[in-house]
Design a protein that fits this description.
heterodimer, A: mainly alpha, 5 helices, 53% helix, B: mainly alpha, Rna Polymerase Sigma Factor, Chain: A, Arc Repressor Mutant, subunit A, 2 domains, 0% strand, elongated, disordered C terminus
């Protein structure tokens, strides 16, 4: 097809010539674009500042030795209860437990061991 | 891992790497996309270098911002960039309301290996005349001709950029070339082409 102005070949050559000589970006533009890119870039997962784990205190470390706070609480309760059992008189214990003062004889045949004569 | 402008890593993969904090990906995308957007914007804006640089930087700014939400497989990065640049150029052309008159100093530099001084002058004259003729085309014809013949895009790629059908691209390109030919007809002597009597 012949064009009304210049021939197809001439126009195609001119376009091809222009395509081979594109405007080249300046170094300043490239630097500005890269600076924008780096400024807006999300941080890499490995580079994000990690939250520093807080150092556990002495009590926490002791609790960990015994199995953690729940175990330590159970241990404390048992210790307090043991002390109470040791210091309270049997009558007080009977009052607390609702038992009678009469104790059961578990070894009635062993009385001879405590009798004199 | 380092990438460069001509590496095997796709633009789309570089977008993901960029969003994951890879600084080399930022460099590679800058090197690959910026020159293409600048050249395209410069040609759409009649060779206005300062405005073309603004368009290129703004296009890349939007690219950095969209990267974390980039959806793989939906659009090519270059298609997206050309589309954004097209819209920015149209906005600027509307804002200034007139086509800029080309000056000889705005012509692109000729790369090494070009002919001597006289030849260079003729080449520059041709490129200036072509840019001036492109600036006289209607916007859509100019976009289609620049994308097809200067940016080397395929018709389906141009259709995706301009968001029209392939057939419409073919029509715009053909009309644009005919109009260019008519505009350049009166400047054949200045372009260094001898009148062979076929014109008219």
């Amino acid at each position: 097809m012949r064009m009304t102005g210049m021939q197809d070949d001439d126009l195609d050559r001119l376009l091809a010539e222009a395509a081979k000589h594109p405007p080249v970006p300046s170094a300043a533009l490239m630097e500005r674009v890269l600076a924008d890119g780096l400024a807006l870039q999300p941080a890499a997962p490995g580079l994000r500042p990690a939250v520093a784990p807080s150092r556990p205190g002495l009590l926490s470390r002791l609790a960990a030795v015994f199995g953690g706070p729940p175990a330590l609480a159970g241990l404390g309760t048992a210790a307090v209860f043991g002390l109470a059992l040791g210091y309270l008189s049997p009558s007080t214990l009977d009052y607390l437990t609702g038992a009678t003062a009469e104790a059961a004889e578990f070894f009635p045949e062993a009385d001879f061991l405590t009798t004199e004569g | 891992m380092a990438f460069d402008a001509s590496g095997d890593t796709s633009d789309e993969a570089l977008m993901v790497l960029y969003a994951n904090g890879d600084r080399y990906a930022a460099l590679a995308l800058t090197q690959r996309i910026t020159p293409r957007v600048l050249a395209y914007a410069s040609r759409l804006l009649g060779g206005d270098r300062a405005e073309a640089e603004d368009v290129a930087q703004e296009t890349m700014l939007r690219l950095w911002k969209v990267a974390p939400n980039w959806r793989q497989g939906e659009t090519k990065v270059t298609t997206w960039a050309y589309r954004v640049a097209t819209n920015l150029c149209i906005d600027r052309q509307r804002a200034r309301g007139r086509k800029r008159q080309l000056a000889l100093e705005d012509a692109p530099e000729i790369a090494d290996g070009a002919p001597g001084a006289e030849g260079q002058l003729i080449d520059r004259g041709r490129l200036v005349a072509l840019e001036a003729a492109l600036a006289e085309l209607p916007d859509r014809q100019r976009q289609a001709v620049v994308l097809r013949h200067l940016e080397g895009m395929t018709n389906p790629e141009i259709a995706a950029i301009m968001e029209i059908g392939v057939e419409a691209v073919e029509i715009l390109t053909a009309r644009g070339k005919r109009a260019l030919s008519a505009i350049l007809a009166g400047r054949k002597e200045a372009l260094g082409y001898e009148d062979d009597g076929h014109a008219g």
